[in-house]
Write a structure and sequence with these properties.
about 120 residues, alpha+beta, two-stranded antiparallel ribbon, about 55% helix, about 15% strand
Length: about 120
């Protein structure tokens, strides 16, 4: 005894549309929000002398198959030396700290989690 079920194709299409929406737009939007929040806090901790370092900050999102990765960095060549905790330096800016990029994301962890939850919720 067979039973015919109507609407299976529409249900599959709706499910595929929902999955594509979550993977396509929501994840990228959530990741972009997280990068903006973390990089903003890192900018506060970034030492400023001639503003070259802080103006060289960049954000990028890459997709490799099903993996979406966000990255924040500094394109100024001396950023590695300013960030290195083993090289002692005196900063003019009172909020400047060593390892400013890592600390910026660690200090804003709660805000990043809240933004990710908001963007990914249905």
């Amino acid at each position: 005894m067979g039973v015919k079920v109507k609407g299976v194709r529409q249900a599959q299409q709706n499910l595929n549309r929902l999955i594509n929406d979550i993977q396509g737009r929501r994840v990228v939007r959530a990741l972009q929000s997280a990068l903006i929040i973390g990089s903003s806090q890192a900018a506060i901790y970034t030492p400023i002398d001639t503003s070259t370092l802080i103006n060289s900050q960049f954000r990028e999102i890459t997709e490799n198959g099903t993996r979406i990765t966000g990255r924040v960095g500094y394109s100024a060549k001396y950023a590695v030396y300013v960030n290195d905790p083993n090289i002692p330096q005196n900063f003019r800016r009172s909020t400047a700290q060593k390892e400013f990029l890592r600390l910026g994301f660690e200090d804003s962890r709660e805000a990043i989690d809240a933004a990710m939850k908001k963007e990914l919720s249905l």
